[in-house]
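Practice problem: predict the structure.
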Amino acid sequence: MTMKRHADVTWKGSLVEGSGSLDTQSGALKGLPLGFKARFQDESGTSGTNPEELIAGAHAGCFAMQLSHMLAESGSPADKLDVRADVTLQPAQGGGFEIVKSALTLVGNVPGLAEDKFLDMANKAKASCPVSKALGAIEITLDAKYG
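Answer:
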């Protein structure tokens, strides 16, 4: 089964003075503002979104779903998985910028599963989720806590 998903961006103007908006196929994101300030100047997130934030959301969501599936398949479904992904963008050598890291942080509540088994499955989910695979050119870390 092959699936395709899409998002559309409209951008007007230059990088610094311009602005854009993002729409997703599902309609969950519609007219979401994009801009230079949201990407490079405003860490609060109140200026709109940016590609790195969207990658972070995709990575956290994919990892949580992968781990949830693995836990359920093993007979120990999670009560709750809290996942955060912090994506790091930094100046690239020679100019421009590059994404260098996605750091996953997980707190899981999985009744009846030993902590070492939980940590092992979390590491396997980190390696096997499709977004982790797509981000193979960057460092991916996992800080997992049980309970």
